[in-house]
Amino acid sequence: MSFDPKSQRFDANEEYNQIPARFQIKTEEETNWRTNRKVRKPKKSKQQVVAELADASHVSEGSFKITYKPARYEAIWLQASLEPFFTQALIEDVLALVKGGKEANVYLCRATPHLPVRYIAAKVYRPRQFRNLRNDKMYREGRELLNSLGTPIKDRDNREMRAIRNKTSFGAELTHISWLMHEYVTLQRLHQLGAAVPLPIGAGDNAILMDFIGAPGQPAPVLHGLSLPLSEARHHFTEIMRNIELMLHHGMIHGDLSAYNILYWEGTITLIDFPQVTLSESNHNAYRIFQRDVQRVCEYFAQQGVECDARQLVEKLWGDYVKTAPDRTVSDLE
Hints:
Radius of gyration: 21 Å
Oligomer: single chain
Strand content: 5-15%
Strand order of the largest sheet: 1-2-3-5-4
């Protein structure tokens, strides 16, 4: 599987042309938007400010120079999302667009030499106006709101909680950051537990960095569309079920698991895409979401000749690891 980065570039006439109007950003001919644009963000701690100033001292102004050539307004979005990682010396170049999605785009980046990986996958979330998340509230039920450090926003943080309750633009930004940080914190936790997930490397207000699975010009394909020998299919099914069981044992459900969210590279599988991670004992939709995850995995492997009973697996795992009784109410899970 190969791809041509040039053929995957965004068309400058596509939706990015709408960004200035949507975000009330003037074009470069009208003003220098980088210096005049004001963005309301959560108040930073003294430690954050000091750390950012220290990091910034090592990078000269205008250091964001990349090999990949984005469309005009994609460049605005890309720079705002990834420049902090240049400042922190985590990435030194953006090489190509690997995948464009409804929720986020994934870019191939070259890691800085001091990191343990050579290439990084930067998952850059699309502007909220252009994201297409359905029923995201269903997955957020029972989860704490996280700030940009990945720590919970408590009720005593009156300014933040009031903004969220009143559905202000600042509150929407906090909700967006929380959605992103749940994915990053989940990756950190699962990697520490020995799950088959990418190595998490960094997170910002609009992007997360992780180990790139594959090779330049040949990103790892997803399982969907691949045909596996029966013996190999059985091996990978066992490994995926190990990961599903590991997550449930620690109170987590992937939330959107299928052959589309499992990478295959050089005989190994890697689970990806965790923003919809669901808590098994504080979300009344958890059992139905878990059912769907297991059912989708079994559907793919049944096509590969693997015998599996999704209903039996769900009942056993839920009984082994979850204290609350399953809510079997019929729902409209997409």
